[in-house]
Structures are given as C-alpha cells and as structure tokens.
Design brief:
Helix content: 10-25%
Keywords: Hydrolase, Magnesium, Manganese, Metal-binding
Oligomer: single chain
Number of helices: 3
Family: Belongs to the Nudix hydrolase family.
Distance between the termini: 25 Å
Cofactor: Mn(2+); Mg(2+)
GO molecular function, one term: hydrolase activity
Shape: globular
Order of helices and strands: EEHHHEEEEEE
Length: 202
C-alpha cells in the first residue's frame, strides 16, 4: 500500500472501524508469468478480535463465494483434501499463523510482521500442472532480480519432492498443482530448509 494513511478514507461516512488496530502483516506481488497476466501488489492485514465469540459479518459477493470463521489449520486441512482452493500467498501466510498461538499473543504477532514485499519466482514443467514458487533464500531465487523470468523445465523430477535434507541446497518454496484457467490450486506444500539462517516466519 503506497499511502496506508488513506486506508481509513474507505470507511468515511459509511461505518466506523478501528483501522489503527489493523496489523500490517505482509506484502505480495504476483510473480512474472510467460504469458501476459495481471500482477497484483497485495497487502495483508491482521485484526485481533476482542470478543471470544465471532462477530457476524457479510462478505462481498463480488469478490467472495462465502465466508466463515475458522482456524488456520482447519482451512489448510480443507485445502489438502481438495475441499477449498487456497492461492499460494494465502496458503503461505496461514501456514505462518498456525505455527504460533498468535491469537493469544499480540506481541508474538507483531514480531512476525514481514513488511518486505515477496515476489515469488514461478517455475513450471512443460506439459505439467506442477508449479514451484521459489522465495528469498531458495537456491533457485535470484535475489538481484525480482522480475526474474524462470525457465520452463522439461522434467518434473527436477522440481518435485523429495528434496535433499543435507542443507547443500537451501530451499524456501511452495510446491503445488495449478488449474490456472479455473484459478484452482491443489496439494500445496511449503518447504523451508535453510541452515544457519533464522527466519522470523518459521
């Protein structure tokens, strides 16, 4: 978000919301793709409820199919079973959240805030739905070029697990299968193996 202070104007004369309590959680930019596709610079925010009972909300029918209150582990489990489709950034951030009891510890949440924009490098296999989104720290990620144009691999074995666990190749990536025409993503996995380097997110 270029001017976060302007966010509160979205609610001007319509309803009141304590926008000062929103925690700026992370920032993602859609990776470069070989074919022309829109790229979105998206900011994620967290909001801590002060009541033990979930509030009733109405979701935007133009952007969402449905809305429900749930735990991160439950929605990730539904994704694993194929009941829901999570875009890779949402899967990544929910994976971060479920690793700590963040709903009970506001200080821990603020320690995990990651304002640096993530731009995954999207690798694919010719003729396959397999996708690998490499993130900073991964040996496939070009730190000097956020708009790096990854090559298309000819063999799925070059990108798919199992990966070596000896630390010879540092990894920070998401692996999944994509039905891009339907915007559906399946079998998402997060692999982090970076020796001698501490990430605030994991």
């Amino acid at each position: 978000m270029v001017k976060p202070a302007l966010f509160s104007q979205l609610f001007h004369n319509r309803f009141q919301m304590d926008v000062s309590s929103l925690i700026p959680w992370s920032n993602w930019l859609t990776p470069f793709e070989p074919r022309p596709t829109p790229r979105f610079n998206t900011a994620f925010f967290l909001f801590l409820l002060t009541t033990p009972k979930p509030q009733k909300v109405r979701h935007c029918v133009k952007e969402m199919a449905e809305a429900e209150w749930t735990e991160p582990s439950q929605i990730i489990g539904k994704n694993t079973k194929g009941e829901v489709s999570l875009p890779p950034p949402q899967f990544y951030e929910l994976s971060r959240i479920q690793r700590i009891e963040c709903f009970k510890n506001e200080g821990k949440i603020r320690e995990m805030v990651d304002p640096k924009r993530k731009t995954p490098h999207s690798f694919r296999v010719d003729g396959s739905a397999l996708r690998v989104h490499a993130l900073p720290g991964d040996y496939l990620y070009d730190e000097t070029n956020p708009d790096f144009k990854p090559p298309v691999y000819g063999d799925e074995k070059e990108l798919s697990p199992p990966y070596p666990k000896d630390g010879t190749k540092p990894m920070h990536r998401m692996i999944f299968y994509a039905e891009e025409d339907k915007l559906r993503y399946h079998k998402l996995k997060l692999c982090v193996n970076i020796p001698n380097k501490v990430f605030a997110t994991f």
